[in-house]
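Sat 14:20. Reprocessing the chain from the morning session after the first attempt stalled halfway. Input below, unchanged.
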Amino acid sequence: MGIRWGDLGLERFRVRVGRSEALFESGSVVDCADLDTDLEGLPLVVYEWRETSALVPVYEVKAMARVLHPTLSDHKLETVGAVHGVEERSSDRTGYVAAVFTALLSEVERLDREVVALLSQLAAEPLASLFSRALPLPMPQADQVVEKRGPVDEPARRIEERGGLDPLGPDGFVARELPSFERRDGQRAMARSVRRTLRDGGALVVEAGPGTGKTFAYLIPAIERLLADESARVVVSTRTKQLQEQLFGKDLPFLLREMAPELNVALLKGRGNYLCLRRWGIAVRDYSEGLDRDRLHLLAPLGRWLWETETGDIDENTAFLSARGGRDLWRAICDSHHHCIDSFCPHYEDCFSIAARRKARKARLVVVNHSLLLNDLVVDRMILGKYSHAIIDEAHALEEAARSAFTWSLSERHVERAVDELVPSRRRRFGWLRRVDAPADGDLVGRVTDRVATLRTTSSRLFSVLGRQLPSAVKGALPDLSTDAASALERLRLSADGVEESLLDLIDGIDESETRREGEVHLASIRDVGGLAARLVAGPEEDTVRWYDRDAGEVALHITPLEVAPILNRILYPVLDGIVLTSATLSVDGDFGYILRALGVGDAFDVVDTDSVGSPFSYEENMRVCVPRSFPLLTEDREAYVDRLADLLTATAKRLDRKGLVLFTSYEMLEAVRRRLPKSISALAQGVDGPRSKILDRFRRSRRSLVLLGTDSFWEGVDLPGDELEYLVIARLPFAVPTDPIQAALGRLVGAGGGDPFMDLSLPRAVLRLRQGVGRLIRTQQDRGVAIIADRRILTRSYGRTFADSLPNRVEVFDSMEDLVEGLGAWFDDEA
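Finished this time. Tokens:
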């Protein structure tokens, strides 16, 4: 059955691509060289609409694809066409756009009518009307498909059936099944160490250089341990969600197929990654009926996805996440312990977050990220349950992740989020109080409303006072509060207590269980505000640092533990039989002392092994590390340093004509250098040209010379193999800012204990950071590149040798910047 063009209001429409335009009748192109002026009133189909207004319905193929195919990696015309088997037509772009549009219309006709009805409610015009017109159309008859069962696959052979062969050896299944696999002695050595630790207990801290294949080196022994001991349970924690998904979606499936197809494994993220069905329903209703209806279309990419997703994990939905305002809106509909009403929720049995946690608790091997691992410890393992072994990948990031997880924060935004669910301050019409069937004593609702207003006012005054009186620095130690600020903080505590008191009275009179439970959740959020205000009023606490920061002008107050080792020793290590901590950067010139002290591993286990597994990459042949001796020091002449660095980047970009990454230690320095680059140099800058993920994607896709300027988040977790990155510039040795409140407080703590704050804290942290940054350059055996360190302190300071000895190749010194640039250019020319 063909598309019912007339019923859809599309019997005749135009397609425009650039300056080309074509007329279509019933989906077929009409040959007309001179378009009649009356045709201007016909609907217009385009790939992407950039004009601000139109007198006719304009159907965007891209917008339609984002609603119908929200999980595609991107929504380029060619990507959408490929999904529907529409062949590209480079010589007939209007026909190609029309063909893709037709395929999308066919997709609409095939959809369940409940999905179409939902999309008609959510989508912006004219798509909403198009979906509405599709509702009464008959659905195509589904083809009868007879499932053909092929021969049953032979079960994967178990380890014992392979005669005890080393899986990573030359005759193992990895070499047999992966043609590109190369034998790596370091990988096998690491696997033996991990196997011993998981079997015998204790702790293993193992540094595995780039290209070692550390994922297989710890996953294979973990699976072996689980097969050998039915009581064992392993949690694998990675630094980021992206690494989680790579491990779970790529590495684990292959190993399980070969070793243990029946092994129960799970991927679990923080609950804020999962859609809350109850909050989704509230948002749809509020945006449909309220004054915020103009934001309803932002929910459209969730409509079809909601019906088809098995996980509810928003990372699947690229269309929603990439939309402007999407991430902000997600906070209103994601799962959150501040809003969850547990078994009282009408969607409890279908809850994505609960389903993910149930699956994880039943799994023998669970893949999480550091944030979730640590937050689970905060709530006494209520999320993951008990486990016998932990493997911490990217363990160099665990200290900061723990410090962040155990930090308490208070801001005006924090207060606003706590009360906004009760009485919305913006254009939304509904909040929990409006949904409450008020008890006979109607004054209770009014009392809560009034006290919420008082709390808002008190919060606004407090942070206004703090904004004026705190130092203007972006971040700093929290000084003794002025009388005005201390009084305002005390009033905030009293206001929160007042809301809590009146909310308790209201909740006591509510009979309906769901509404009552939701009120109790909001009550807990208010208590958090009051409790943190009380801690701040009470003054400094032992072994913590109180600090503030400013984000877009908004002040936030924080209480952070100084040392995380005692916390980990108390709530993580005692219940483990064994733990493996691994990363490419854990030692400073071969010494693991810093990481052992920072994480407290040495005090927690009787047996602590350390090992360093070298990278298989040939750094001597494929990598150069260079330092220009004549470079000015920032501390001596800031302007001269910035000018010279801009000159270096300009000369390097012109001579090498390749893609480069420049790593800065501050955004201020990045911006100063960026402004000095000539327009002839193509550059992307963090904070200027888009968020990190966007500019990384643009950098990867570029096929020409390009310079990427990045700060903190670009020093690690960036994978740019081959010609995606061929030179790297380190602007300065990455010492932490001395005035950073946490760093300064840690230094005082080290000094009070008889240590040297610089040698025992600042230097090892900076060395590990530098190694992470330089590690961005060589990612595969075939990579070739140069690293330039534009900080001559590595040559002139006594500690410079520590930095130099920790790098994968010797440091070459050039007397002038010009000699350096020309020498590197000649080196690349020889390759060509």
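The chain is about 45% helix and 15% strand.
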